[in-house]
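Database export, one record per block. Field names are fixed; values are copied verbatim from the stored entry.
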Amino acid sequence: MKANIFLLLTLALLLVSKTTAQTKSVTISGIIKDKNLKTSIPYVNIILKSSKNQAFVAGVVSNEEGRFTFSNINSGNYILETSFVGYKTKTQALFVGSLSEFLVVPNIELEEDINTLNEVLITASKTAEISAKMDKKVFSVADNITQSGGSVLQSMQSLPGVTVQDGKVQLRGNDKVMVLIDGKQTALTGFGNQSGLDNIPASAIEKIEIINNPSSKFDANGNAGIINIIYKKNKQEGFNGKIGIASGYGALWRRKTNLPTIRPQYEVTPKINPSLSLNYRKNKINTYLQADYLYTETLNKNEFITRTYNDGAIVNQQTKRNRDTHFTTIKTGVDWNYNDQNTFAISGMFGSEKIIDNGDQPFFNKDYSQRLRLWQFLEDELKTTAMLSVSYQHKFKEAGHKLNAGINYTYHREDEKYFFDNIMPTFTGKDSFKLLSDEKVIDINVDYIQPLKYGRFETGLKFRNREIPTNMQFFPGINSPLDPNAGGWATYKEIIPALYGNYIFENNKIEAEVGLRVEYVKLQYDVNPNHPTYKSDGYDYTQPFPSLRFGYKINDKNKLTAFYNRRVDRPSEVDIRIFPKYDDAEIIKVGNPALKPQFTTAFELGHKATIGKGYLFTSLYHRFVNGTISRIATTAPNSNLIYAVFQNADKSSSTGIEIVYSKEVNSWYSFNINGNAYQNKIDAFTVTNLYPVPTTYFGEKQQIVSGNVKWNNTFQFNKTVSGQLSAVYLAPDVIPQGRINSRFSIDLGAKKSIQKGKGEVFINATDILNTLVIKKEIQGNDFSYNSRDYYETQVVRFGYSYKF
């Protein structure tokens, strides 16, 4: 085992990937005063020079109040020179950091004297091309050529440090990720746990931010980190926009033949994604509209499972799901700059997701000589989301000194209908159920930021009120496997007030950020009193969530950082939903209203070295979790039905190393390699599944060394044509009650600029070798099963866009 760990860590040290980040520009402000009279001096000349070579950087004149502002200044060491007729010219060293977008210079006091002070010089430190903080990675969606024309989830698959499993994004092998849209949680992507990413068109998105170590300013949930999806919004003067169309085909050939007697699986599935972006800006008003439509036919699932029971019974099954998806998103808003100090903004978002699933589940005996059951289903689901946001910003006279306030209202309806044909050897039953859920969320937030000489102080509060009434109705047929007694209603009510404070300090060598978030949560889950298993449940807590970041600049090319934070993952409403879900006839998923939050403590040490036209980033991290949330599968007595129920499975931990290397080899070729090796450990635990009857499960300790490697290559063939080739390998990993085997895929793409740069065409292909198959091994209390999912992974897309 030690040898395997050493080999994987060595491999990770050699194979690493690129994080794209942006150089942060800073706004510098201050005020000029008379040293004796303490009054402001208007119309003073202020010049900013480089301390390295005395080169002129920028110059301004103070206003009537003696205030001045420099905008878009890169971090580094400078000389600030202040001069005015009848006063001494004053020079002073000025360090501009990268932790804050605003820097307030202490009052500059001039003396009435004609003599000149000597300049104070220090060595300049030019900002590196990636985020010096190493806490955020920023990726432009337009640069991801291999995934153009797809969904946001697909666009994330090639990003360094990101993997996708079972339709969810994982950061460093963990899917407890908080997903934001424009910095806010919405029902579109889920409050807390992620959802819906596979149906948001990437064409609507400008960039994606990945934050592995969030500060206390962010909500406390999401122990793996935060993904912030930034929608497009142009701010150019006048009327402008962009229109695009993308199309493609997936499932180009059959990877695995159906079991006998079922309907054909989808092949050569069409995709289409038109998009429109409009913006109009004049004087103090900026209006925008982003509209996208994504239609896909997909072989969403094609899983083959062999279940083996301790009594010798063997069941072979297939779950084949042909899916049609219509997803529409519209985001619009108005920004009103009332004056230099006050800005108002109002925005709205609408999303409609229509899903039609036609599925087949045949069940056969050991040698496939007898079909035990055929479960054919139609799922008709409509999800509707509407969000309204109103915000206000007041800028004080000092640049960067501001107050933000906002209120967000979200409404989300889930209208889901299932119709089943339960075809048995001696009869056919017609079964169905209907689920209706309305989610209403109000978020109120206030944030205050005060720039300081060496950093800034920020504080704020947030209040959330969330309510989700759900209603489930079962309509069983002849000898139905459905449990009509498990239906009824349930209401989820959540109240969360939170208060945070952060202090950020920075000088030439040291960066530090210390923060604390205090959060109170009260969850009430009211359940239909006639439910046979569950009664009303809930929890409440008041918990501190501290965060700490420390950075030390060894020199211009080397920097060390350290992170610490404590976070929480609260169960989502779906995790505790009491109703069994029958999208699989014999492996049935059930929520657990007794589920409690899991708390995570994380540590990380990082080092970044700038090497020529590239960089090397190395990070060691460790996180441990109390109350690990896992789905545990057990069997019912005298039955082959398996019930998978969410439980708190005691403690787990993950320790790993991530390395990122980026290199511009020459003008036409650059590459990045990302390696992530980690040890996942789940301690032994004991839980009891209450549904349908109490069943105790004893989980043994699980431990594995896993990881992944990604290699991205970018080619600039000429001024108008570029290409991309990406490869990813995912090592075996542990999952609750089992393991998932290795996976490998290769993607490629190319794009060409046309029409004098206003137009662009692209073509790409994902999983070109058709090698990406999900293989799992599960061990239950008196059963085990192996599965292979040959779902659609190979897709060819092409498209065109035009800017105007």
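Remark 1: The radius of gyration is 29 Å.
Remark 2: Helices lie at 2-14, 152-156, 573-576.
End of record.
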